[in-house]
What does this fold into?
Amino acid sequence: MIDISILLQIVWTGFAASTYAILFAVAFSLVVKVVKVWNFAQAGMMALSFYVMYAAHNKFGIALLPSVGIGLVATIAANVFMDRYGLQILRNRNSPSLTFFIFTLVVSEFLAYLLAMIFGTEPVALKPNIMSGVNIVHGIVISNWDIEAVCVTFTLLIALYIFMTRTQDGQFMAAVSDNPELSRLYGINVTRSYVITFAMTGVLITAGMYLFGTRASIIPNTPLQMMLFAVIATLLGGMGKIFNSAVAAVGLSLIQGLSIFVIPSQWQGLILYVFLFITILFFPQGVSLQKFKQLISLPKKQSAAH
Amino acid sequence: MEYFISLAVLVGIYITLSSSFNLIIGFGGLVSIAHPIFFALGAYTTGLLAIHFQTHPMLAVLAGGGVAFLSSMMLSLPSLRISGDYLMITSIGFQLGLLEVIKHLSVTGGASGLGNIPNIVEGSSRSTLFALVSCAVAAVVVLAIRWLLNGPYGRVIAAMRDDELAFAALGRNAMMIKLSLFAIGSGFAGIAGGIYAYYYQYISPDQFEILQSAMLLTMVVVGGMGSQLGPVVGTILLLLLPQAIGFLNLPPSVMAPLQGVIYTSLVLVFLFWRPQGLIAPGQRQSAKEA
It folds into this structure.
């Protein structure tokens, strides 16, 4: 019999731990939606963001909040630079998707190697002490980090939602994601939409790395491994459905946490890959209730036909 | 001298790997980066057969190739029916997922790796013999691919890659061509893995991670994707280049990432300034001349 308080604790911890994963998934999904690129360079940008914050705070003694600001500026600059002087050239050449893939993957690795050369491969965290104060609410341990992470993530998601639905630039981005050629004909500055997309991705990445870096240590290669989670959440949420990918990230994180009741902890890492296969094979357009209903009703229809 | 002979072993192994990878990605147009997992499956199969069953080295290496050949279908059968981007993502998941399994199985030595693979060549000429074998296998693989691509099967592959819809409209089975290309390329990678396991006598999962995929991709892109000799040139260049910075006597903590920076910078340079690679594919070259 499972103790309900243990179950609730696992659900809460899984939910809190999913916050940075949500930000990475939303950032990845945003680029897939607007720019139509599987941006594996996001892993490199995540590493860059973390190490700039780390260097500013731990090497130059700047307070944590201004360090986050410096990290944010560096990440946005690097993201926009990559789009203007990398992706834009490939777009102009009508390069195949393989070239985009190679480019983004290699940018990621270039940054990982460069950071390993500068900072070494010893795991480092943003704060010297990553322990956080805790509060007990109805028997559930809720750390101060959990509260901060949930607040930061939801504030950013609400801000993104308002930007996408209530501002002209957000609506232009939606138009560009739908049809860039037609958008251009209507006088929308497509390049500007791409730049804004990468700038917003920079904000999400920096916030995510701040949350992750105040909770755990990383090495330059860690973000590359974390990227797969964002990719699977994007696939599960459905291509171009930014907020669905956030929901998928929470779902994945909870399933990973709760799987401890069913499978040994050492095999928990495999769950992600199983999900990846199931998603791609059965739900390549993402998981939706309609799809589920179709799948459920199909055998009934077949038996009725017989 | 021993150092350069060891390098020749590595060159042979990597030419086999990059040429077989080029067959899949460059000629088949199949966007998979899971090639190192087939290299790993070949290495682990050979290593386990050698340790537990004292199998004849030749049979063990061929078994490694066979396992890679068959297991490639685990990836290709379900995922080749979907488009390029999805195949790429599935291939990453397949590679990392299988490595995760290898890391947690006791029979494979877990994350700490599989050691005690028997030494099959004693004496001072060990490396020389391995260098000869690995280079000979590389030459056979390059020639086999050349023979495959220059014959009728090569024209079928080119037709499928250039216009799959038209290919299917002519009643051809593109799926079967893709499956066989994938399996042949993966089988060659498995054979390279077998030689690798016997030479180094130790293998671990982190030798077959995603960075290995990037290294192979670099060799193919720099040499010339879709060109028969491109990966050979790319491999030799990229394995010899780090030797040039070896004379700088930098500490290993700087040397390894510096090599990575050089590799990745080269790919970026080639992607933008010479996307066709050092040796352009024959077809595009002749089109240019025309």
About this structure: Chain A has a mean pLDDT of 88. Chain A is about 75% helix and 5% strand. The longest strand of chain A covers residues 134-137. The interface with chain B takes residues 38, 86, 89-90, 93, 95, 97-99, 101-103, 105-107, 109-110, 112-114, 116-117, 120-121, 221, 224, 228, 231-232, 235, 266-267, 269-270, 272-274, 276-277, 280-281, 284 of chain A (CB under 8 Å).
